[in-house]
Amino acid sequence: MTPPLLSIDNVTKRYGAVTALERVSFDVYPGEVLALLGDNGAGKSTLIKIIAGAQPPSSGRLIFDGREVSFAGPAEAKAVGIETVYQDLSLCPNADVVANFFMGRERVRRFLGLEWLQERAMEEETREALAGIGARVPNLRAKVETLSGGQRQAIELARFVHWGGRLVLLDEPFAALGVTQTRRGLELIEQVRARGVAVIVITHNVLHAFQVADRMVVLHQGRVAGVRRRQDTSHEEIVALITTGSAAMAA
Ligand SMILES: Nc1ncnc2c1ncn2[C@@H]1O[C@H](COP(=O)(O)OP(=O)(O)OP(=O)(O)O)[C@@H](O)[C@H]1O
Q1: pLDDT (mean) for 171-187
Q2: Which residues belong to any copy of the ABC transporter domain (predicted)?
Q3: 134-159 pLDDT, tens per residue?
Q4: Is the Cβ atom of 40 under 6 angstroms away from ligand 1?
Q5: Quick check: 231 pLDDT over 80?
Q6: pLDDT, average across residues 104-126
Q7: CB under 8 Å to 96, separation ≥6 — which residues?
Q8: Can you tell me the distance from the alpha carbon of 236 to that of 72, in angstroms, rounded to the nearest whole number?
Q9: Cα distance between the two ends of the chain
Q10: CATH numbers and ranges of domains, the chain
Q11: Which of 44, 75, 147, 149 has the most CB atoms around its CB within 10 Å?
Q12: What is the chain's mean pLDDT, rounded?
C-alpha cells in the first residue's frame, strides 16, 4: 500500500483558554482529494495554518513523506512542497500571467556580462503547464488583475504543480466563484490530483465535497467527528457529523 504523504498525529492547538483542535489525527495520501468539513469554529482554518507552517501546534506531530517536520513559517512548508492556494493573495496583480508563473524563478540568459529574460521560452513553458492541468487562460500577457477569480486559481494551481508541489491546501476555493467557474475549479482539482498531488479542500459545501473528494474529514468542536470514504457515506451522514459531531442521527 502507498504510504501516506502526510500524517497528522495527535495535533492539539490552544489559544489561551480556547482549544481550537484536540488530538486531531488523520492521514493524507498522494493523489488523493480530501475534503475538510466542519461548522464555523470547528477548527478547519487552524488545522490548515498548522499544516502550511503558518502556526505551530501546541502539541502533536506532522509526519511528511515519512519524516517528522516542524515548520518555522510558510516558507519552510513551501520548501518541502506544501502550500496554501488562495484566489488572490499570492499573485502579483499588475504583472502578467507569465511573470506571475515564474515569479522568483525567471529564466535568464547571460552573455558578455549582459543578462536578459527568456520571455519566449517562459511563455511557452507557462502555456504548457496551464494546458497540462486543463486550465483556460487565453492571454498570457494579460495582467492578472484583469482575470477572473477562477483563472487566477488556475494559474496558481498550475504553478504549484509545475514547480514540484506535493500537497496543496485550498481554503473555500469556490466561495467567490459562479457556477461555471466552480465547475471548472472542480475539474482543475481533478487534474491536479491526477498528477499525484494531494489536495485538501476546506469547504462548507457538502455537495462540492461529494463532487470532488475521495475522503471527507469532519471536524466538530476541534475534534475529528469522522473520516469517511465518499462511497461509504451519505449526504445525511456527513451533515449529521458536521452539525452534531455524531453520525447517529443519520442511522
Ligand atoms: N488567533 C486566535 N486566537 C484565539 N482563538 C482563535 C484564534 N484562531 C482561532 N481561534 C478559535 O479557534 C476555534 C477554531 O477556529 P477556526 O477558525 O480554526 O475554525 P473554522 O472551522 O475555520 O471556522 P470558520 O469556518 O468559521 O472559518 C474557534 O473557537 C476560534 O474562535
Answers
A1: 85
A2: 6-246
A3: 888 889 999 999 998 888 888 999 99
A4: yes
A5: yes
A6: 84
A7: 140, 141, 142, 143, 144
A8: 40
A9: 31
A10: 6-81+165-250 (3.40.50.300)
A11: 44
A12: 91
Q: Is residue 75 within a helix (H) or strand (E), and if so which, with residue range?
A: helix 74-80
Ligand 1 atom closest to Cα of residue 40: 26
Counted residue by residue, the chain has a size of 251
Name the residue at shortest CA distance from atom 18 of ligand 1.
43
Separation of CA 108 and ligand 1 centre (Å): 44
Give residue 173's pLDDT: 84
- Quote the CA–CA distance of 155 and 168 in Å, as a whole number: 14
Find the angle CA(39)-CA(43)-CA(48) to the nearest 5 degrees.
Answer: 120
Whole-number pLDDT of residue 119? 84
Please state the rounded mean pLDDT for residues 231-247: 95
The reported pTM is 0.91
| Interval 209-220: pLDDT, tens | 999 999 999 999
What is the residue whose three cell numbers read 516542524? 70
User: In whole angstroms, how far apart are CA 118 and each of 92, 98, 107?
Assistant: 20, 11, 6
- 141 close to 98: Cβ distance less than 8 angstroms: yes
Taking the centre of ligand 1 as the mean of its atom positions, its distance from the CA of residue 41, in whole angstroms, is 5
To test the pocket of ligand 1, the residue of 22, 24, 44 to mutate (highest count of ligand atoms within 8 Å of its CB) is: 44
Output the DSSP codes for 4-31.
Answer: PSEEEEEEEEEETTEEEEEEEEEEE-TT
